[in-house]
Each structure stands twice: as C-alpha cells, then as structure tokens.
Amino acid sequence: MMRKGQVSLEMLLLLSVMVGVLYLSLSLLSRTYSLGSASIGNAASESLLRGIATAANEVCAMGEGNSRIVESSTIFSLSYADGSLSLSNGKWQFSRKVDCLIVAPQDSISGKILVKNTGPSVSISQFSPE
Questions:
Q1: What 3 state SS string does the chain have?
Q2: 87 assigned to some structural domain
Q3: pLDDT by residue (tens digit) across 1-38?
Q4: How far is residue 91's CA from residue 72's CA, in Å, rounded to a whole number?
Q5: Model-level pTM greater than 0.85?
C-alpha cells in the first residue's frame, strides 16, 4: 500500500515540473513572437518610407507632371519639415531626407499612394483612379 502512494506522489511531482517547463517555454515563445512582430513592422514601415522618399526624389528630378504610385499595406501618416519626410504608424516614426519641397496629406493614408510633381513642390496623396 505504501508503494502505490509513493508512485502517485512521484508522478504528481514530475507532472508539476513538466507543467512548469511548459509554462516557461510558452512565456519565452510569446515574448519572441512579439519581438519578431515588432521587428517586422519596423522594417516594413522603414521600407515604405524609403519607397515614398525615392519616388518623391525621382518625380522631383524628372520635372512637373511626373508621378509615381507606391503601394502600402499599412495605415500611416506623413509629415514634412526641414527637408525631411517623416512617416508615423502609431508605434514608430521614421524620417528620411528628400530633395524637394513636399506637400504631405493631413489625414492617415494606406493602399495606393500617388507621388506627383506639381511644379513648385511634390504632392503625396491617396491615389484615386480618374
């Protein structure tokens, strides 16, 4: 009779250790996932800003009337100050130097973005087919 009780106690002890290890593993996995997600979002936002700034510099160099369309899968807002174009998506903000005066939209935008040289400046707006 004593032997059965001892085996049950050992099984309970082993089970509690396994549950503890499982808890720690899931905790570390969750932390790694959130850090990875943040890193991917960070890289995507930085890449989007690079694409918009490059399009702005290109249409600026090509002259009035030229335009480019940049695709975005995230909602973001843009601002322009002191020769730098800044992108903010709520969590991160990135800035990049541009060669022209930029007229940035006041509202948040996503999807297709129209970058167009309007003469004295380059305007950035939500693309809408005409």
A1: CHHHHHHHHHHHHHHHHHHHHHHHHHHHHHHHHHHHHHHHHHHHHHHHHHHHHHHHHHHHHHCCCCEEEEEEEEEEEEEEECCEEEEECCCCEEEEECCCCEECCCCCEEEEEEEEECCCCEEEEECCCC
A2: yes
A3: 456 667 788 888 999 999 999 999 998 888 888 777 77
A4: 17
A5: no
Residues of the domain holding 54: 36-126
Cα 101–Cα 107–Cα 111 angle in degrees, nearest 5: 90
Distance CA 101, CA 11 (A): 72
Tokens of 50: 């690079």
- Give the chain's domain count: 1
Q: Please state whether beta strands 122-126 and 102-103 pair in parallel, antiparallel, or not at all (unpaired).
A: parallel
Residue 17 within any structural domain of the chain: no
